[in-house]
């Protein structure tokens, strides 16, 4: 059985020039499903979430037993295709039943007693800014990778010895594996474009980042630590780095991961530890689709005592 059926869906008309001008960043369509072998503190036994660009757009669980929209723009899909929600619901109900069977098979395979066990499935595709495509499909059991699909060789990779039985079984289904490849490389990409066309006002928007530097002097050795914080940007892709004399500087630098905010934007931070005598050589460099040109935030030359926010940049200019 293929990953997803793809009946015709009326695509919202988008002028080609507008589409190309907005499609400057990478975009992704991903699905994450989780099943547990028994109820736990009221949690549903099966949950499936769909993401477009890291934004949850559909949700299904074994309590509601219905695929439901999580963003307002998905309501347009049901209006254009009245059978869409019923189709998606039936597909997820089938997945829920399949996961229940898989959990029992895996429990026996691992010679485990009855109790709480977890099975996860992750799959989806990405259309990158340069036009290249990527897709992935993998299963996890008890929080570890169980088996992964290699769409280039049409085979399954089993890092866990217990998964080798499943590997041999699924490798013996070449037509089904070819269907997985077709979905990941073509069908999934087409769905991604359709969803982007419906959510174009939010998914293809740009939000200008706010950049702020906070700093302090280390009492022990007199060295300075500077943290560059980037807030409220969209889309997710951002190029932020510390630079010395115009060149990227990696020594004594640390950074977090790009993380989502409650309003759908993202934030990020990166720090550097430097000799205060060389402070003027360093800049926090930021490039993003929301900026008309790259931003370089300099470090001020005043004496630091404890943490202090020096300056930050908004779309309207500099503030201190």
Outline the structure in words.
The chain is of the alpha+beta class. 24% of the residues lie in helices and 36% in strands. A hairpin with a 6-residue loop joins strand 3 (55-61) and strand 4. The chain is globular and about 65 Å long. Mean pLDDT is 85; it is low at 1-23, 303-311 and 315-320.
Number of helices: 6
Strand order of the largest sheet: 4-3-2-1-5-6-7-8
Radius of gyration: 24 Å
> Any low-confidence stretches, pLDDT <50, length ≥5?
1-23, 303-311, 315-320
DSSP strand tally:
19
Q: How large is the share of residues in beta strands?
A: 35-45%
SSE string: HEEEEHHEEEEHHHEEEEEEEEEEE
Major sheet, described briefly?
8 strands, antiparallel
Ends apart, CA distance between termini? 60 Å
Supply the helix-strand structural class: alpha+beta
Q: Look at the structure and give the mean pLDDT.
A: 85
Tell me the overall shape. Answer: globular
Proportion of helical residues: 10-25%
How are the SSEs ordered, and which strands pair?
Layout: H1 16-22, E1 27-36, E2 46-52, E3 55-61, E4 68-69, H2 75-80, H3 84-109, E5 118-127, E6 133-141, E7 144-150, E8 155-157, H4 164-171, H5 174-198, H6 200-203, E9 210-217, E10 224-233, E11 239-244, E12 247-248, E13 253-255, E14 259-260, E15 266-274, E16 282-287, E17 295-298, E18 308-314, E19 317-319
Antiparallel strand pairs: 1-2, 1-5, 2-3, 3-4, 5-6, 6-7, 7-8, 9-10, 9-18, 10-15, 11-12, 11-16, 13-15, 14-15, 16-17, 18-19
